[in-house]
Amino acid sequence: MTPKKQPPPPERNRTGRHDVEIRRPDKVLFPGDGITKADLAGYYRTVAPRMLPHLRGRPLMLERHPDGIDGPAFMQKDVPDHFPDWIHRAELPKEDGSVTYMVCDDSAALRYLADQACITPHRFLSRADRPDHPDRLVFDLDPAGEDFAPVRDAALGLHRLLDELELPSLLMTTGSRGLHVVVALDRREPFDDVRSFARGVADVLAARHPDRFTTEARKQARRGRLYLDIQRNAYAQTAVAPYAVRARPGAPVAAPLAWAELDDPDLTARRWTLATVDGLLKDDPWKNPPRPRSLRRARGLLTALTDDRGSPTP
């Protein structure tokens, strides 16, 4: 009788001030690529210096795949009881109580998430100390079909429009289907006001190109046009974190881009993968990010782009 193969011992590593154990390091999370839990943990340890500034202080929703990307998955908000005490937490209100979210402030916590088969951390657009006042505004651009060109066109249109409103913006792939256009805010306004402003921006862009873009949330009303999605700009909504791995074949990564990269006709949402991390980290297109901005002046400039009836001027 062939003896049962014993699993390898946990992979232990001192990360910062904490010992982090990767149990079942040979567990394959991406079957088609042979990427293991140890590989995922190694990636997050490598990208931690780039990724952590985009996570610190922010509540997270955890996308966990305990049996790999081909198995059942779940989204987790509340921190499980078995998470170690040194993991930072933030208890925030919800309609019928509260939720205790994880906050990933150091590389040990990021590596621990890999041990928990959390392939993708999704971050709040606000920080835990002022959860209703975002410091990020996000436009989510996904293609209506397989053609990525409309996504590039929408991102470029938003970039130009935001420049008109004197709001510098950043660009990133989602690692899934589309792009995010991100604006850094000064946290003075609540989510409702920020979302209202984002809707106004999307309305102007859609009015300028009514045959290409839409703000219609109903799929049947879009008629093949790209949806300018601003719905992530709300309390307790999340967006994929920069440098997060996505649970898709090839292990694509949500990656910051330079605006000039939009000119590349081969650009897709999955340009960067876990296997090409060296190239991803060669340069940092977000190395000198714009300072957070107020929406006060931008709101006035946006109003000037609309006619007396309040409809966007093409």
Description:
There is one protein chain. The chain is α+β, with helices and mostly antiparallel strands and 314 residues long. It is built from six helices and 16 strands. The protein has helices at 37-51, 107-115, 149-164, 191-208, 277-280, 296-304; strands at 11-15, 18-22, 28-30, 35-36, 59-64, 74-76, 88-94, 97-103, 118-124, 136-141, 170-173, 179-184, 213-214, 226-229, 238-240, 256-257. Strands 5, 6, 7, 8, 9 and 15 form a six-stranded antiparallel beta sheet that branches. The chain has a six-stranded mixed beta sheet with strand order 13-14-10-12-11-16, with helices on one face. It is globular, with a radius of gyration of 21 Å.
Query: Which structural class fits the helix and strand makeup?
Result: alpha+beta
Low-confidence stretches: none
Q: Calculate the terminal CA-CA distance, rounded to whole Å.
A: 77 Å
H/E topology pattern: EEEEHEEEEHEEHEEHEEEEHH
Mean pLDDT: 93
The tally of strands reads 16
Q: Which percent band covers the strand fraction?
A: 15-25%
List the helices and strands and how they pair.
Blueprint: E1 11-15, E2 18-22, E3 28-30, E4 35-36, H1 37-51, E5 59-64, E6 74-76, E7 88-94, E8 97-103, H2 107-115, E9 118-124, E10 136-141, H3 149-164, E11 170-173, E12 179-184, H4 191-208, E13 213-214, E14 226-229, E15 238-240, E16 256-257, H5 277-280, H6 296-304
Parallel strand pairs: 13-14
Antiparallel strand pairs: 1-2, 3-4, 5-6, 5-8, 5-9, 7-8, 9-15, 10-12, 10-14, 11-12, 11-16
Helix pairs in contact: 1-2
